[in-house]
Structures are given as C-alpha cells and as structure tokens.
Design brief:
CATH superfamily of the largest domain: Spore Coat Polysaccharide Biosynthesis Protein SpsA, Chain A
Radius of gyration: 18 Å
Distance between the termini: 42 Å
Shape: globular
Number of helices: 12
Largest sheet: 5 strands, mixed
CATH class of the largest domain: Alpha Beta
CATH architecture of the largest domain: Alpha-Beta Complex
Number of domains: 2
Strand content: 15-25%
Oligomer: single chain
Amino acid sequence: MLYIVTPVYNRKEFTKNYLNALLRQTVKEFKVIIVDDGSSDGTSSMIKKDFPDVILLHGDGNLWWSEATNVGVRYALEHGADRIMTLNDDTLPTENYIEKMLYWAEKKTKALLGAFAVNAEDGKPVYGGEIRSWFPGKRSRILLNDLALNEQHGLHKVNIFPGRGLLIPAEVFLKIGLYDSKNLPQTFADYDFTCRAIRAGYEIYCNYDAVLEVLHDESTGIRLKKEKNLSNYYHFLFDIRSGGNITSSTIFAFKNVPKHYLVPYLLYGWLVRIIGYWIKK
C-alpha cells in the first residue's frame, strides 16, 4: 500500500485544495497522512469534516518539515506501507499523477521516483531533476535544460531530488533511516536523504510522465527574493524555512560533499547566497 505523507501548518485553503486534488486521482489505492504541526487556523477541523478518510496526526508546532514527515513515515511503516510518498500541500497533483508514479514504480521497484514539476499559474516547467557535481563551476546540470520536448517523458536518472512528490520504497527508510530532523529540521533534509540513498546503492529518477503543479511563488526563498531589502536578505540567509539558509546548506555540505571538494563547494555556495541574492532574479 502507498502512503502519502504531508506536513501542514496554517495553510487551510492550500491543504483543502491539495486534498481535493488527491480525491480526483485516477487510482484510489493509497492512503493520505496529514501531520498538522499545531495549526491555529482550523486546518484539523476542516480535514475531519471534509476529508474523513485522511489519517490526521498532530504535532506541537515544533516539528518543522523533517520531524513532521518522520512522524508520518513512522506511522506508515508501522501500518504496513510498502511505498511512501512525501508531498507538500502547496502542490496540485494532476489527475493521473499517482497512476503514472505507480506505473514506473512497478518497473523500477527499488528506485526513488521524483515528479516533473510545473508552475500551477502558467504551466511552465519549474523542475525536471538535476545531476549535481560537487565541484563548483559544474555544480549542477538541470536535465530540463538538456531535453528536447520529444524527450520529456519517461524516467531520467538524477543523483539528488527534493522531497516534493518523491516516491520512496519503504525498504529505503528501513536501510538508511528517516530524515535528519536533528541537524536539518526544515530545508536540505530532503536533499540529504536522497544523497544518503544514493550512497546506499539506490537509484533516483525524475518521472516526466507524472506532472505535479506547484505554487511556485509560495516558496519562502522565492518570496524573500521578490521584494529585495535588508530585512528579507537577512531572512533569506538565516530563516530556518529559507532554501538560502547558510547554516543548513553548510551542514548539508559537511554531511554529503566529498572531502576533497568541500572547501571550494562551501566557498562557492556562500558566495552564491551572499552576493547572488542581489543579482539573481
């Protein structure tokens, strides 16, 4: 059985739209776990009323993404899950999304599968997977940039992936453990998890047949860069929710970057964040 794990916090309308998108799926053989980490906007009440089949778990407001996800994953494993998907409530899975994920999961039974993401506002591609090199200057190759339109289907191998729509065989958690909520409570824990999976011998693919609509502008890092000022700059670099967080990116590097590349990788990453905030759109 597939279990879909989604942490939520004070985004009732987002959560409602997301759950409605899951109700419209062409296949129904999955269970949804929502981990509400202390919402005060009526999210849990709405779920109980409108989505009674959803498994609703609770946190005290201090779980953040990593441990909230771990809470859901533990429940899924304890209840016999053979596959677990991590998915966010600022996404809208297209109607055949889970069908297309399960189709390829049957063919690649031990692989982790990520989804092809498009902007929910205009349908433009947002993310199609990447092949990351640890040496700065060739740090990342975004597959989408290399693929012609007629190649944007099926599976494409990658070596790192975010947790947004990631389908994971249960055995991966049993072998490498859960998300590192102690060191990476919010950002980079998902990337760290896929790096650990790669080192454990698992493969990762981006599934271009499974389309996930994302509310791109709701990302904390994106919002902080839309209106650039000193306050947003500070939060971009140090807010626990920001993808630009220097502390989390540094911890991620120490955990995953080969030692002979660590110093240049760190220097490049710090430079991109500290200076790039002002010059990148």
